[in-house]
Write a structure and sequence with these properties.
The complex is a heterodimer of chains A (174) and B (346). Chain A is built from 6 helices and 5 strands. By secondary structure, chain A is of the alpha+beta class. Classes of the chains: A alpha+beta (174), B mainly alpha (346). One iron/sulfur cluster binds next to helix 3 of chain A.
């Protein structure tokens, strides 16, 4: 039957000739190939001593950002959760009380913010959805753990640590 | 036989024993390193400089592993198996001449443990015994994979012993002696090496040696993909270690044998033209001999990481239908050439 694509090739199996049957030339050829590899440059990166440079847009663990005054930026609008294709994000909103202005930037904030790292596919859509520039996937690799519950990262792991900006600028100017 | 003679031989035995164990140990590392380089990676390089302590770590691990003897196994035979394997592997090096005579004071020391006049036959006997270790171990494990491996080992070594023996007969026709010491001393210099008169015989001998050592592409008794571990499936701890050791010692001894029988052993080119004293020639000869052995060991490993394993029927076909007829043809050819040379060119 004619093939539709016209790309079918009929392979013919010829009987082996004398040199092919005694194998030795083929073995010699194989040996030369392995020997060539013996002297090749080895692409291995010796990990703990050498670290492969990461790509600039590498997406690692999420971090919830703070603004210049050290207040949490997230306003618990839920857009990240909505955009998340893996449904990895959940949160509970709360209202900012009086005297908490130095903690939260907006009047509404997330009292609970959890990402299930087993669900997350590190697509970065949450980062793109956020109107407050509050979430970025700029952390390290998410490490292995023993229990499923330990993969649900709460605010304790996500919110970036407070940096004393005054001290930092002083250090830099030194 | 005076005491000094016995002492001298005893020291030699201990040295050779130690050397073969150390070489077997470091062959494991070399194997992994060579495998690594041939597959574009480094191989073990964490334990010590370049991984040089790796064999020690592996040995230590073997000693501390739990020793399991399966409930259904035949206990005495299960223990005899690896013992026999390692013993036969170690005693076969006794007839190999490592070097010429060394003159210490007024004593002449021969660097060969026993120059028996049927050295070649002795080697054959020991090699034939070697398969018992594998067979007994495989049978005693009471495991079908082990049994399969043992059966394969037995039939494989029987088949290839014939080819090996026949290829050696042609060599013996050329050398006219069964003593390995004589065979080696006949090949002094470079042009007298037996490889130049017996290239086909060497090829057959080498193929059979690969098969006798159960090395890839003839490692059907082990054959991880089909038989899990073959004859040593049930073995653990140092008993497994002994099996592996015996495999590497076998490889070392057959490399030595090939170097001695076909590549002139301790002989090297221009050995008498450089004006060196006896002792120096001996010492350099020993080093040269070991260089040849290492080259062969490297070749063993090189083949291992190049060729895939034979199928069992292919193995049998190669042994019975190709190597044995070829070896017989080689004998006939050698005979004709010898007669023609004797009658017309002398
Ligand atoms: S990176 Fe993608 S999958 Fe992970 S939390 Fe953000 S939106 Fe969801
Ligand atoms: S991280 Fe951004 S998108 Fe998600 S709830 Fe907070 S403000 Fe909204």
């Amino acid at each position: 039957m004619q093939s539709l694509s016209n790309r079918k090739k009929v392979l013919e199996q010829k009987p082996m000739n004398f040199w092919e049957r005694i194998y030795l030339p083929a073995i010699a050829k194989g040996l030369s190939i392995t020997l060539k590899h013996f002297f090749k440059k080895i692409p291995t990166i010796k990990y703990p001593e050498q670290i492969r440079p990461y790509s600039k847009n590498f997406r690692g663990q999420h971090s919830l950002k703070r603004d210049e005054e050290g207040r949490e930026r997230c306003t618990a609008c839920g857009l990240c959760a909505l955009s998340c294709p893996a449904e990895a994000i959940t949160m509970t909103a709360a209202e900012r009380q009086k005297g908490e202005e130095d903690l939260y930037r907006e009047e509404k904030y997330a009292s609970v913010y959890e990402i299930n790292m087993l669900r997350c596919i590190f697509c970065g859509l949450c980062e793109e959805a956020c109107p407050k520039e509050a979430i970025y996937l700029d952390g390290p690799h998410v490490t292995a753990d023993y229990l499923r519950k330990d993969f649900i990262y709460g605010k304790d792991k996500l919110v970036e640590p407070k940096i004393d900006l005054v001290q930092l600028t002083q250090q830099k100017s030194l | 036989m005076e005491g000094a003679f016995i002492l001298e031989k005893l020291i030699l035995v201990v040295i050779i024993f130690t050397i073969s164990l150390v070489i077997a140990m470091y062959s494991t590392l070399a194997e992994r390193k060579i495998a690594g380089f041939m597959q574009d990676r480094y191989g073990p390089d964490r334990a010590g400089l370049f991984g040089l302590l790796q064999p020690l770590c592996d040995g230590g691990k073997f000693f501390f592993k739990e020793e399991i003897i399966p409930a259904g196994a035949h206990k005495p035979l299960f223990i005899i198996g690896p013992t026999l394997a390692i013993i036969t592997a170690c005693i076969s090096s006794a007839v190999i001449p490592w070097g010429q005579n060394l003159t210490i004071g007024d004593r002449v020391v021969t660097l060969q443990v026993a120059d028996i006049n049927v050295g070649v036959l002795y080697i054959f006997g020991v090699i034939a015994l070697g398969v018992y270790g594998v067979m007994i171990g495989g049978w005693a494990s009471n495991n079908k994979f082990s049994l399969m491996g043992a059966i394969r080992a037995a039939s494989q070594s029987i088949s290839y012993e014939i080819g090996m023996g026949l290829s050696l007969i042609a060599l013996l026709m050329v050398t006219g002696s069964l003593s390995i010491g004589d065979i080696v001393s006949q090949q002094s210099g470079f042009v007298n090496w037996n490889i130049w008169v017996q290239p086909l015989g060497f090829l057959i001998f080498m193929t059979c040696a690969f098969a006798e050592c159960n090395r890839v592409p003839f490692d059907l008794p082990e054959c991880e993909t089909e038989l899990i571990g073959g004859y040593h499936t049930e073995y653990s701890s140092m008993k497994l270690g002994l099996y592996m050791f015996s495999e590497y010692i076998n490889m070392f001894v057959s490399s030595a044998l090939m170097a001695a029988l076909y590549f002139g052993g301790y002989n090297f080119p221009f050995m008498y033209d450089l004006g060196l004293s006896e002792n120096w020639i001996t010492i350099i000869g020993v080093l040269v001999f070991f260089a040849k052995i290492f080259a062969f060991i490297f070749f063993f490993m090189w083949i291992r990481w190049t060729l895939p394993r034979f199928r069992y029927d292919q193995l049998m076909k190669l042994g019975w239908k190709m190597l044995i007829p070829l070896a017989i043809a080689n004998i006939v050819l050698t005979g004709i050439i010898t007669i023609v040379k004797d009658t017309y060119f002398n």
